[in-house]
Amino acid sequence: MMSHLAQTAPLAKTSQETNIKKKQGLKKLKRYLPLFLLMIPGLVYLIINNYLPLFGMVIAFKDINYSKGIFGSDWIGLKNFEFLFRSSDAFIITRNTLLYNGAFIIINTVIAVAIAIILNDIKNKFLSRFYQSVIVLPYLISMVVVGYLAFSVFSIDSGLMNKTILPMLGMKDISWYTEPQYWPYILTIVHAWNGAGFLCVIYLASIISIDPEYYEAATLDGASKWQQVRAITIPLITPVITMMTLLAIGRIFYSDFGLFYQVPMNSGALADTTNVIDTYVFRGLMVLGDIGMSSAAGVYQSIVGFVLVIVSNYIVRKVNRENALF
Amino acid sequence: MKKKFGWLSAILALMILIAACGTNSGSDNTAEKASESNESGEVSEAPYEVVYAFPIFQSVPKDLNLVQDEINKISKAKINVTVKLLPISISAWTNQINLMMTSGEKLDMLAHFDYSTQVSKGKLYPIGDIMEQYGKGIIDALGQDYYNATKINGKSYGVPSIRDLAQDYGYIIRKDLVEKHNIDLSQVKTYEDYEKIFSVIKAKEPNMVGVTNMSGNSVLGTYSTRDSLGDDFGVLLNNGQTDFEIVNWFATDEYAQQLKTIRKWYQAGYILKDAAQNQEATQAIIKAGKAAGNFSHMKPGFEAQESRGIGMKVVAVRTAPAVAKTSTVTNVMLGVSSNAEKPEKVLQFLNLMYTDKDIVNLFDWGIEGKHYVKMEGQDNMIKYPDGVDGDNVGYFGYGWMHGNQFLSQVFEGDDPEVFIKQAEFNKTAVKSKALGFTFNSEPVKTEVAAATGVLQQFRRGLESGVLDVDKELPKFIAKLKDAGIDKIMEEKQKQLDEWAKANGN
């Protein structure tokens, strides 16, 4: 539909007489009416679910009073945003959020692509399906459960680490939940274990759709497996990788709340390395229940995400127009 | 390309317009309807329906509607009001209420646990204005002192349910352990003395610790010798008995001393090693034999309540006196929503919940003969009917939430005089000088949010003995300062001084 529209558009533009234009427009409308109709449910959903709530952004700039209602409440400018930058923690949480998510994007992409390539080469149908399911499984486990799985490994009294692994290596017990320096590694591993499988399925789908003739030709020319991966697979799935990465960048200011709250068991002593924007907001506002300040945090996150997506998309477009999202 | 986008945006704009019109006219309609029914209601005297929302911690009891019908029979006859019970799961409670308030859904009455926030957000109707007229029974049942404790700037926005309005503090321990090891509980007079119990447990029961944390809280979290003035940012020492000078509790020697004691206990092995992560329910931990007991705030009849919950007999040691503070009074409140159409009708119904024995018993225990039966030969005592037990009974209610619990019957196993004792307890409890002062944190909410975050970060670890006090406490205090605790305390002192002046102190 897009390409058709794109082709007819210049035609309509060149014709000078308006009634011809009108007729054509009418004709076009008639022709594509079923498609427009098909669009309606999706559009309605989009508007109700994604666009109407945008009005809620005004809450971030108001001092909400329920007896006055949302629109009657007083405007207070940027006061709701203040607490995000209030303490010296503001730097730590921003740094943590950006570094973690940056690392997650890179590490998960590398792992997911690697696994996808390996899976693609498993010729046994049953085994291939089996591995796929196993790899996706962690993605479906609730973070609360993941938190307890981690707890069974790191518990001070009875965890696998302190009871079995460390004694085997002849090392002393570690009080995992009070020592922040280990957590960047733990969280990254947990996140990769949790999220890479899902990403892997997406890459696998795009690898499968690559025409096998490329590989046949390469094999005839004597290319090794590694050369094939480098010269065929990676370049052909680059658009998908770029797209997934751009989408991830858009959410770089959001952090997986479950990962940063449940997995460290909400242990305050770990805050230096586990406190991110979402957990900071949650801890500060859980007691207060102030929707103005919570919305402010949300607005702040989405604006930064929006800007980052636009900027990175712009850069991608400069490098390679084909790969850009829009 | 351009043209296509023009099309799309045109459709979009149209849709938004339609949607906006839709919502607008919708709300207009309901407003009209409301005013209509208002008028017609006065003419034909149709009963007014009170929608009563309250949080619920289990699943909704299946006979809720039957109980509601029974309540309505009484209330309709007496004041021409019916009630619609609206239990909301505690996990969705705040969101749900916020949503109902913003969307203008019908909501007349609600129970709540954060009085000052509700008031500052304008969620509650100032019932103090019409209290004398429609809610006299509530004031009489509460007593003037406790009623006054609900006033914010001279106006009452809600009333506490009648239950234990003061709290004393102490420690409960399994009775069988006390008897087995001959522990002399009477030698425990102060907080430091608890060590005498813990060391015996440690020596005699190698797989058990002396004290566990309260669920989701620290070990010390429920022990108090101060008036927290709502949020612990600036407190009155000595339970608010001495003067009106606000101090930073976390920087006091008393707090440091308590932390050092608990750190000592932690290192001696009297506390669970993962006390700062532990999410398990206190009662489950004690039942499982992992701990001998826990610190808690208490009330008369507390031992019986806990024994039932744990499934083993427990005894209590009390080391901090019973004190009534604004926080112990306002932590469970009933109020009229600012959306309520006819607040006076709602208040009349609330009045019944404080004065009508039959309604209170319906709320608390359900229908006689179906959900409970009277025990023979004993006046006020009830039990489950034959074939019914706690697991399959069709109704349960929270006596401590729905109005005047002292009008309620007493369940088998409790002290028959438990409510008489609680009433006495409320009367004789020491009253903090600041009883009745409610801090409005709105002017410093930025600082409160930041400081709350710091609290979450340090408090549980420190108050469970997991963190090194000498190293972490100074950090904690510095971060609180950084978050603006001084500004909060300044504002609080200002409000407290004004309050004290207005109340003739």
Q: Can you offer a commentary on this structure?
A:
The complex is a heterodimer of chains A (326) and B (505). Chain A is 70% helix and 1% strand. Chain A has 326 residues and is mainly alpha-helical. Chain A has a two-stranded antiparallel ribbon. In chain A, helix 3 (89-120) runs antiparallel to helix 9 (225-250), helix 4 (125-140) packs across helix 7 and helix 9 runs antiparallel to helix 13 (291-319). By secondary structure, chain B is α/β, with parallel strands linked by helices. Chain B has two domains: 44-163 and 325-440, D-Maltodextrin-Binding Protein, domain 2 (3-Layer(aba) Sandwich); 167-324 and 443-505, Periplasmic binding protein-like II (D-Maltodextrin-Binding Protein, domain 2). In chain B, 46% of the residues lie in helices and 14% in strands. Chain B is built from 19 helices and 15 strands. Chain B has helices at residues 2-44, 64-79, 93-103, 115-120, 128-134, 136-142, 144-148, 175-180, 195-204, 253-268, 282-287, 302-310, 326-330, 343-355, 357-365, 418-428, 445-462, 469-483, 485-502; strands spanning 48-56, 81-89, 109-112, 151-152, 155-156, 159-160, 167-174, 209-212, 291-298, 314-324, 333-336, 373-374, 381-383, 410-411, 430-431. In chain B, helix 2 packs antiparallel against helix 15 (357-365), helix 6 packs parallel to helix 14 (343-355) and helix 17 (445-462) packs antiparallel against helix 18. The model of chain B is unreliable at 20-43 (pLDDT under 50). At the A-B interface, helix 1, helix 2 and helix 12 of A face helix 1, helix 3, helix 17 and helix 18 of B.
